[in-house]
Amino acid sequence: MRLVAKLGFFFWFGVLSGPLQAADVLPLAGEWHCRLDPEDAGITARWFATSLPQTVRLPGSLAENGLGDPVSLRTKWTATIYDSSWFYNPRMAKYRRADNFKIPFWLTPNTYYVGPAWYQKTVDIPAAWRGRRLLLFLERAHYATRVWVDNAEVGQQVSLVAPHLYELTKVLSPGPHTLTVRVDNRLETLNVGPDSHSVSDHIQGNWNGLIGRLELQAGPPVFLQSVQVYPDVAHRAARVKLVVQNTTAKSLRSIVQLAAQAYNSATAHQVAPMQTAFVAKTGETSLELTLPMGEAVQLWDEFHPALYRLTAALRPKKSTADEQQVSFGMREIKAVGNRLVVNGRPIFLRGDLHNGEFPLTGYPAMDVPAWTRVLQVLKNYGFNHVRFHSWCPPEAAFTAADQLGFYLQPEGPSWPNHGTSLGDGRPVDQFIYDETTRMATAYGNHASYCMLSAGNEPAGRNQAKYLADFIKFWKSSDSRRIYTGASVAMSWPLVPENEYMIKSGARGLPWAKDRPNSTFDYRAAIEKFPMPYVTHEMGQWCVFPDFKEISQYTGVYKARNLELFREDLADRGMGDQAEAFLQASGKLQLLCYKSEIEATLRTPGLAGFQLLGLQDFPGQGTALVGVLNPFFREKGYATAAQYRRFCQPTVPLARLPKFVFTSDETFEAATELYHYGPEDLPQTTFTWTVKAPDGSFVAQGQFVPAAVPTGTNTPLGTVRLPLGRITKATQLTLEIAAPGTAIANDWNFWVYPARLPALLPSEVYCCTRLDAKAQQVLARGGRVLLNAAGQVVKGKEVAMSFTPVFWNTSWFKMRPPHVTGFVVDPTHPALADFPTEAHSDLQWWEIVNQAQVMHLEDFPAGFRPIVQPIDTWFLNRRLALVLEARVGPGRLLVSSANLAPTDDAQRPAARQLYYSLLRYAQSARFNPAAAVDLQVVKDLFETPSREQFSTFTKGSPDELKPQHK
Question: CATH topology of 22-219 equal to that of 222-320?
């Protein structure tokens, strides 16, 4: 069956966009009566004809009003729990009790309810409203509504994306009436997929209630049902499509007047008004007018978000006038080859995913200031684009984005992968058409509404054909934006009809196998695709939890997941290290985001990226992937100014073949300028400097490119620096900047002596096994340096990479890596010849990547290693990469990383660290404070860890199961 954008049984009357007068609106916010209907008995029992017993405040949700069931192990959630086995390991038993219930999978609401809920209010219709058209306006409901006035049913609607509007003219006479609204949030109503961010417990929650503007509206019987503006940038004009609805029995001669004025701009511009006469027939009349905008027209984009306010006035003869105001921008977005172009200028999308993070309420913010705050934070961090993963925000988000200059991609409210599919004849097929039609009607005038996807990562045997038809339909229906079938990872089929594509191939860091460099890019992943390629869900690098965040949850959701992780860390004797773990893992996370974003910026032909994410994702097992928390607040290890150095319209880039050098080499880096600013740069001087840690200059120079066009990358030149003058291990920093501007970027690199000074013979016994001689040396009070790479048994199950945990370990059944960086005391004398910060950085790659770690489960409480890997917060094992201890009368220094003492030119950092450890072991400063029994040390190389992933047991079949089918 060929799908068309019809509304089926859903009622849709358009959105009243204009400013209504106070006399035209009866606000419904305040106290309502309510009753929950878990048995779905209310319709049969005619609850609409009875008084409901409880009271609630609307707008709001049931949870905000304290209604619903307490959360427990038996709660039937909406969302999918992919793997609950970890939650059933013995240590978690205390969190499964009713008096201490804490789940790790997502935030915990105070109460939970899925099913019908009835809301009722008495309204008094003014006598002055007699003869007027009356509408019930529910700005956002979740998500099926059914309405009665007194005992008469008016209708029902299902929408997750737009206001529910009910025509009440025939049932509301002046005087008191009982208004009853039944809201049903069961997924069975229309299954869009249990993990869709429009409904899922993972993010905004499957709330029940009514939010935003709730009001009765009175209008004239002949009115502007729809005002849609289609900018024509090339001809400096705006096509205005009007739908006039005449509910009287007679045709009326009428006049429509159009006027527009610029705002949100430093330059005033008044468009010459126009008017036309026509006959408003009974029923619907469509008009299309062309409004010349004039030579002074101001265009909208990310740099100049100039907006126009169009006033459309309808003046029927012998009837009350109607007036509507809509905001629009003179903007054109197109795909030209593999580029995205706005108003003729190439753009590059630096995008973030908004997944529906609303940690106080669990439902979307409905006011412009709230969205302005979030989008301003994103702008401060250098972003110009937001994708709304499988949901559509309310109008306030579009309004804020219009004013700040953001390119938005809302989506059909579906992740049709788990529990449903596309193209297989399910109800969701038509629903996506219906919902995106409602989105076009409600939000289509907004300049920021630039892109549309049907949803996220669909399933379905016929999904490719469905998505192709979807794109063709919208391309032919609405030229104001560009369209793609779905946001997808690598395995999804290509839809050739896409105007642009979102795919995951152009992402990731190749550091699992390759030595870190800044020369790689993603051109091989995108070169076979003929349309603009936007990277799907880039990043997903984890950081350790910020337990200071817990106190910020002052609403109906609580961070019981973070509480669980904090308590478990304390149970493992590391509660005092939480902040150090956060800061150290955060610096590694920031480094990974910088490296991956820069790789996209230097990829020729890439159209942009969509990050997942700048902020944490509080669901799906608790995915702490943001440098910001779900409140869009900083965590203390990254600022907007730091982030903008590598994420803004103009960014210097350097292609370093590696980050670790020896003093007999020449440092060389090709440099270029990513520039997607509002215009070409005039001749600009760019300086380069290489600085020592104390800020002193090692070398400097400058580039003066003849021109820097916008919309591309421009070579600057090559930095060359012989390193022969470097005599000791040091960290240097290359910076490229445009003096007097905010354009600057930098990269650390490390230089180690090509030949290390010879160490005097000593009594330190160096070995690769804790052999009999090592034990004898310790027994007689000697010193042992144990380079134990490959020998670890207790901790062998822990996989360490240089890069941190991806997404989170629990959600993927403890898929490696399990470690998120490490903490180290940079002032420890063992590291005197190996300069380091308190966290992992690129010089550590050859040391820690794929290294074994030691599990210190039997070491004394409070024991702290020299280099301590940070375990996944789901397990919080006490780990070590380098440790020291007194063993009997002897002194022991152990590394489980491969620190081969040979002169390996390919591993200068490992050689340097070994030298630093050996020199320390020879010194008088080698005097470990902690004592450990020899058998405990031997167990590291002989006895497996007591707790293995295989010991986790699955829960009862009746526990932690979703409510949907």
Answer: no
